[in-house]
UniProtKB/TrEMBL annotation:
Cross-referenced NCBIfam families: ectoine_ThpD
Coiled-coil residues: none
UniProt name for this protein: Ectoine hydroxylase
SUPFAM superfamilies membership: Clavaminate synthase-like
Keywords: Dioxygenase, Iron, Metal-binding, Oxidoreductase
Catalyzed reaction equations: L-ectoine + 2-oxoglutarate + O2 = 5-hydroxyectoine + succinate + CO2
UniProt lineage: Bacteria, Bacillati, Actinomycetota, Actinomycetes, Mycobacteriales
């Protein structure tokens, strides 16, 4: 029996199934550090993150840095070729996401190593981390479309072979996030439950899912029960604010029909002790710009 088959048989978080199964209660921690002194977050913030699965950090990027970052994003959007696989476009042709910006821009790479960013990731994950995935999300006024409810870990587990829930995302606002311009919504506390999804992973699923995800998303009844139990929080605030959230937290966003654009730097930190294996529910691995397999050295300041 192959190692890939054995892996699926012993999968603690089964998904992409042909029938619905009972949700799985999380058995591993959300906060991995052993001591509060291990990083910049105090006990209250760590407890809040453990309970809710998310934490807002205003002023993560200073006002003096934001203009140059916004200019840099405009440069990347203008210079990258239209057929570059790292550029994801909306059906109308506008750019939705740019992947691997930390490898394309020294300014974005500097953000990864900021004192307000890297130590938080190291503290939450209890040690050295690397960038599993990074991207710029662009949601222009009037045309920016939303992201349906999902757990990132479900995708990273099923399609990338991430074995454990030992990853954390940091979404840094480059523009003001209002309640009405497509800002991120999360279901607090949903990170404590893994919600298996129905439907086998199509071949080359990433080509479609990065525009509109249909597989690897909970059904409406599951989402209704989760919201009835936990409610919904929304990330709003000034440019430079950051939202940290657990890899298994259910989240999504509506479309932006306002004139006010919304953009963010999205960084996914994974523990060096949680490196990828074979996919649990896909035939082939996704490209490197979506799931780093070669650049897994710890990020250093």
């Amino acid at each position: 029996m192959s190692s890939a088959v054995l892996q699926r048989l012993h999968d603690p978080y089964p998904s992409r199934l042909n029938h619905a199964v009972t949700p799985v209660e999380r058995w591993e921690p959300t906060v991995w550090c052993e001591e509060t002194s291990d990083g910049p977050l105090g006990a209250a913030d760590l407890d809040r993150f453990a309970d809710d699965g998310h934490l807002s950090r205003p002023g993560t990027v200073g006002d003096d840095t934001l203009p140059s970052l916004r200019t840099e994003i405009d440069r990347l959007a203008a210079e990258l070729a239209t057929d570059d696989p790292r550029v994801i476009r909306e059906p109308r042709g506008t750019i939705r996401s740019i992947f691997q910006p930390h490898l394309l821009s020294g300014l974005v790479a500097d953000v990864v190593r900021m004192d307000t960013v890297l130590p938080v990731a190291q503290q939450l994950l209890g040690g050295d981390v690397y960038i599993h995935q990074a991207r710029i999300n662009l949601m222009p006024g009037f045309t920016g479309s939303g992201f349906y409810w999902h757990s990132d870990f479900e995708t990273w587990h099923a399609e990338d072979g991430m074995p454990r829930m030992r990853a954390v995302s940091c979404s840094i606002a480059l523009t003001h996030n209002y309640p009405y311009n497509g800002s991120l919504m999360v279901i607090p506390g949903s990170h404590r439950t893994f919600y298996p999804c129905v439907g086998a992973t199509p071949d080359d699923h990433h080509r479609e899912s990065l525009v509109a995800q249909q597989f690897g998303v909970p059904d409406e009844d599951t989402l209704t029960k989760a919201v009835d139990r936990h409610g919904i929080d929304q990330f709003t605030g000034a440019a430079g604010s950051a939202l940290w959230f657990d890899c298994n937290l259910l989240h999504g966003s509506g479309s932006n029909i306002t004139p006010l654009p919304r953009s963010n730097i999205f960084l996914v930190f994974n523990s060096v002790d949680n490196q990828l294996t074979a996919p649990y529910a896909a035939k082939a691995i996704r490209p490197e710009h979506l799931a780093a397999r070669t650049a897994t050295d710890p990020v250093r300041r």
